[in-house]
Structure prediction request, 443 residues.
Amino acid sequence: MEFLTGVKKKETLEIHEILAGDYTGKTVKLNGAVHNIRDMGDVAFVILRKAEGLVQCVYEKGKADFDIRELKEESAIEVTGVVAAEERAPQGFEIRLEAVRVLSEPAEILPLAINKWKMGTSLETRLALRPISLRNVRERAKFKIQEGIVWGFREFLSSQGFTEIHSPKIVSRGAEGGANVFKLNYFNKKAELAQSPQVYKQIMVGVFDRVFEVAPVFRAEKHNTTRHLNEYMGLDFEMGYIDSFEDVMAMETGFLMYMMELLKKDYDKELKILGVELPTIPQIPQVRFDRAKELAAEKYNRKIRNPFDLEPEEEQLIGRYFKEEYGSDFVFVTHYPSKKRPFYAMDDPADPRFTLSFDLLYKGIEITTGGQRIHDYAMIVEKMEKRGMNPEDMKDYISIFKYGMPPHGGLGIGLERLTMRLLDEQNVRETSLFPRDVTRLEP
Prediction:
């Protein structure tokens, strides 16, 4: 009888192992996909694509035991060869090929030139052929950086005493209310896909004090814009025992600072591939909602048309204002009108027309919504009833206030939208692996 004792030691090496070891002049094995072949007759360059990057392999006729003409791009192969220093190669070394073992071959020619630096095709084509287009080096780099954003979120909040939770995405009622929900037949019961983990985040504050979640969010909104998706990844946290909603903004500021440093340190290669220069965040300014609208109107001669919400153009102008006046790519816009915020938002005691809430704008686009929540039982019941809601419909949620909750608040960040702004992309679909919008359900 045989037993497994853990991860098997492989004969093949990874890029980081070669870079960290003394392999120059030694024979090694690597596996990967054939990214590109440049056949120059007696000499050919085979570029191997691996998760860590590209590796240059050199074929010399008569020194290798295979015919380069039989090798196809996108074949999965295992190469054997001698490591040689080469400053011009992608990793600073190359493999002088001795043998190649073909593990699999493509059945057809690729529909996209993924080995080009820029594929030169439309976004719609790249999305329709997403399983292939994602193999492109630049496309891959976007989602490595997105990994770093999530990694930073988890690491920073864990260091601040937060517990990671996983809330259900099939619910009986949406936390935000309204009609923009995907309805389900759940064993002959009415159900919905969760618009937000809000209810469960608040419940869990009563358990762990501070919680966070990275999970999908579903919005059945029929808009088709460059900034909206119908399924996106939410970075959510909720924290108890706060003194004010500014504690929540301060925590997000700390996360953003931490995330930028992590990206600089661990994702420098991907940032260089995409030509991204990260912003510095010594501090983030904040401005009241009504004052922000006035500042944009005054400086850019724009009439205020909607006193209760920010239009996309206003967000852009407010972002522009704080970039020009304070050199900041970020600005917290606070005290949104109560009628534009959910029932659980805490109204400002000084003026109940406004809430103790905020949005964070990054380069003129909202990437975060958050604020302080109502924690008093009588107060939340009263607000629900004023809005025509029946507290009995959310009795499990209401029970947490009945049996005591600390002052608390939190926020939600749209991962794809944050990535889009960070990389200066113009469409949020560029930063979604497999975007779901009003027209796209595949691949």
Observations:
- The longest strand covers residues 27-39.
- The mean pLDDT is 93.
